[in-house]
Amino acid sequence: MDRLACISLPQLPLQLVLRQNPEWYSLPTVTIRDERPTSPVLYANPLALKEGIRPGIRYSEALSLVRDLRAGVASPDQTRQARNEVAALLEEFTPEVEMSSFDPEVIWANLSGLEKLFGSYRSWIVLVQKRLKTQGLGARVVVGYTRLGSYIFARIRKTSLVLDSFDLEQRGLANLPLTVLPLAVSTLGSLDRLGVRNLHDLLKLPRDGLFARFGKEAKNLLEFLDTDRVLPLQPLEFSHPLDVRRRLDSPIFSLPLLLPHLHQMLEQLSLQSEGRRSLIAQIELLLGYESGDEEREVIRPAQPGRRVSLFLRLLELRLENRSFRGGIETLQMVPEEVILSPEQLELFASRERQASATAQGFSLLRARFGNQAVQVATLEDSHLPEATFSWRSISEVQEVDRSPLSSPTPDRASHHPSTAVRRLIITPKPIPKPSLAARIAGPFLLSGGWWNRQKASTTQSATYQRHYYYFWTPQGDLGWGYQDQETGRWILQGYVD
């Protein structure tokens, strides 16, 4: 029979807070939901519990009990990252690891066939705990025969354990109260009112009703209880980051001699990516010089893919005007991967050849002139015309909406026979005062800045008062601009088409 180990990371958010602040180990410490006085206490260390602080009370109330209380927040992202860190670490000790779907503090490991390799299961536990300790984490480990059995014993015990027989594990589960399961207090109360007080009672209830009444929390847990014995361990697929390196036989000083090496490395990356069922969204190229210096370049295609010719072209564009500092001795390519399901990969294969010509063109522009070369205007909240937009880099092209509503129809066009468009020039320029005959509309008053600082140039006053006009320029163009009421200067800001 298979042997499973349940690795429980008790009070993981509190462990993460203490790992970030090791000087708090000797002080009363709690974790709170967010940094507010009304935030509830989620976990408390033994020193805080000794002072009367209990999970559930408000942080402000806890501070009134313990003046030197320390508090921290461990976000769900930090907890997730820590679980992934532990899962990767366990790869040193087992070939198969499964994350719990209902308890973020639990991971299972398959120990079948490992007893002789490590001497005993107890030796395995000691080695794992020592390894986790180097990462600032503590764990309880129980070796059992089923996920449920090892999980329950890991929750109810304060020390690690090796269960020597399947019967011993099952006898221990027979009449355990529901409080050993990670259910909310309100859910436990509702089940108690229904007369459900142990695991045996819970498993006899109809599933559909439980799912509808108690939601996702109960659904994930009950699916686990139902499939524990029949579903084998569902291991994570450990994947090391792709990283292709090459040390050149002799230093290279020119791009033509470098390109064949880059081509071979890209072919290697493409094959490895195909084997991992992934696509390459970005490649970071590191050039190592004989002097010990290093240069870094990043290229991105229009969409993730594996086409060696495209990536080689992008690298050639990026490097063709480069003057190398000296002889290049080492090359390293580090890709950013996108992991896709088989269905997504099949869809990708059919669409890869249909990539937008515009998107491909943009990727070539970025490769030639830098990753900030392609930008788009974004609307901003401001009264000043020059501050109503900003520029941001774009990494992909959005398709234009070609639905009927987005295209003008004859009826709609008839309501707007002509439309004037104001063109904003990049750099407003001072002009002579337009004559009264040249002015065709205005003044239009624009003032403000006393309530907040506008997104204008740093040389401009925080407050402003402008009189805007439309006027004919000496060249016969219809311009628009303003007279600054503080300085008296006239500024041309754009033209009207």
Quick recap:
With 497 residues, the protein is of the alpha+beta class.
- C-alpha termini separation: 81 Å
**Major sheet:** 5 strands, mixed
Gross morphology is: extended
Low-confidence stretches: 399-417, 452-460
- Average of pLDDT: 79
Strand order of the largest sheet: 5-6-1-7-8
Number of beta-strand segments:
19
Counting H and I runs of at least 4 residues, what is the number of helices?
16
> Given the helix and strand composition, which structural class is it?
alpha+beta
Strand content: 15-25%
User: What portion of residues is helical?
Assistant: 25-40%
What is Rg? 33 Å
Describe this structure in words.
Among the domains are: about 80-225, no CATH class; about 250-370, 2-Layer Sandwich (Dna Ligase, domain 1); about 420-495, no CATH class. About 35% of the residues lie in helices and about 25% in strands. It contains 16 helices and 19 strands. It has helices spanning about 10-20, 45-50, 60-65, 75-90, 115-120, 120-135, 145-155, 165-175, 185-195, 200-205, 205-225, 255-275, 310-320, 340-350, 355-370, 410-415, and strands at about 5-10, 30, 40-45, 70, 95-100, 105-110, 140-145, 160, 245-250, 280-290, 295-300, 330-340, 375-380, 390-395, 420-430, 440-450, 465-470, 480-485, 490-495. A hairpin with a 4-residue loop joins β10 (about 280-290) and β11. α13 runs parallel beside α15. It is extended, with a radius of gyration of 33 Å.
Spell out the blueprint of helices and strands.
Layout: E1 4-8, H1 12-20, E2 29-32, E3 41-44, H2 46-50, H3 59-65, E4 70-72, H4 76-90, E5 97-99, E6 106-110, H5 115-118, H6 121-133, E7 140-144, H7 147-156, E8 161-162, H8 166-173, H9 185-193, H10 199-204, H11 207-227, E9 244-252, H12 255-275, E10 278-289, E11 294-299, H13 308-319, E12 328-339, H14 342-351, H15 357-369, E13 375-379, E14 389-393, H16 410-415, E15 422-431, E16 439-448, E17 464-472, E18 478-484, E19 490-496
Helix pairs in contact: 7-8, 12-13, 13-15
